[in-house]
Amino acid sequence: MMNFLRRRLSDSSFIANLPNGYMTDLQRPEPQQPPPPPSSAPASASPAAERRQPPQSAPPQQQQPPPPPQQQQSTGSSFFSSLSNAVKQTAASAGLVDPSSAVSSAAGRKFKLLLVIDEPHTDWAKAFRGKKVHGEYDIKVEQAEFSEINLIAHADGNYAVDIQVFRNGTKVVRSFRPDFVLVRQHSFSMAENEDFRNLIIGMQYAGIPSVNSLESIYNFCDKPWVFAQLVSVYKTLGPEKFPLIEQTFYPNHKEMLTMPTFPVVVKIGHAHSGMGKIKVDNHYDFQDIASVVALTQTYATTEPFIDSKYDIRIQKIGSNYKAYMRTSISGNWKTNTGSAMLEQIAMSDKYKLWVDTCSEIFGGLDICAVKAVHGKDGKDYIFEVMDCAMPLIGEHQAEDRQHITDLVVSKMNQMLSKTPIPSPQRPTATQQPQSGSLKEPEPNKIPPQRPPPQGGPVQPQGMQSQSQEPLQPQRMYPPGQSAKPSASQPQRPPGPTTQQPRPQAQGPASTRLSKEAEPQPPPAQQPAPQPAPQPAPQPAPQQKPQSHPQLNDPDTHYCR
Questions:
Q1: Cβ atoms of 261 and 303 closer than 8 Å
Q2: Over the stretch 184-206, which tens digit does the pLDDT of each residue have?
Q3: Which of 72, 109, 275, 334 could form a disulfide with 191 if both were Cys (CB 3.0 to 4.6 A apart)?
Q4: In this structure, how many other beta carbons lie within 10 angstroms of the beta carbon of residue 136?
């Protein structure tokens, strides 16, 4: 049941079709159900049941009242209560509940959740044990590999990460919302056919802070792209301060014809730990490698082979620097393959300049390392930069791991706030604004008017507002009373008590109407019966009437 709800709630179309305010109602406390009535007084369970009781002369089986409604609803309420609790738990685990309404529960959580993406041979939970954020929040560590992680991210800031890991032969499935991410694993490798760039995109979409930054991690998914940044540094500092090795880039196999000098090292695609690297001694072997590149359908780079004495690695973790020298013992040209001797060397200013300059690419690298080769000609050649996924080497791995821990805690103190920040409200699909609801009420818009009598002139809709005010003073008032302004009041339909007789064509009402009325095409002349004139009080002196062919028609003078 829980698995079914989790799958349903993870579907965006299902969430969009929920009723308005449904996810908000899930967070409200359930009202306490009233206790069932005592069995000693079943007749007083419902007043309606008492009114429906037949007289005493009826058979005794008809005098029994129906069972109380609380007993009928007990089974249904318990089922829906359990279903509601299951939906609450699933929605909370999937991160579908709006965090703005759950600030109190998040504020009461006295820990920050750290997701560490690394292989299981390193126990990062032990390294962060006892560490605190802002001096009061413990750090809870969830560790998994890229292949064990999945996530969902919304544009409003809601997200949830799911992991499926095996612990002591048991499959553990968890869903949580990390506050910070430490990436210690390569997110992309062509050699192992592992592409987890979609997870990096999802974390960036959710806005999760990390070490290194998610932008730099995504940029490190192609080594030629990183080498292009080193070329920019080389042009800025020069070959003496930044001795970068010569490299040629081929987007495909079509231009891989020959090389001016041999031997060369061909690197196919994007791989790690010496994979995809081939030493080529002549142009015949180079053509064979070009045919292999054609099958891989990817890019390739070539570098001159350097007969080296040792390799150099300069690493930087926060503000800590270390330099190592590695010498091959087995005689393999790949010093990271086979037997090699590793020793730590002094950190010179030259090495510090290299790693400090490389740590500024892609907006800044908190953890990085520069790899170089010292040739037998006495020259150094920089050929690669690694990011936070670099492996720890040497006999100071525990110390380096502690430096990474301190760096992550420092970044969490900088990027995470003490109080949870609610994300913006996500609009529900059923709350789409209608076009009419956004319009302001028009002040000049007049409600529908009463149609004129049959046979009279029909005015256009645009002229109704002009003829509305002149018709208002037609109401007669007794002597001693003044007409009250009624421009802002809605007009009342004429009733039998306010209806006035139709005046003659020469009456005072026709003179006031002729002042404001617009010219209309003359209607058909029809004789109208003339009622007997009635004496009426005359208002203030009237203006001189103006002749108009339409207004002299007795059918056009009617009282509203």
A1: no
A2: 999 999 877 789 999 999 999 99
A3: 275
A4: 9
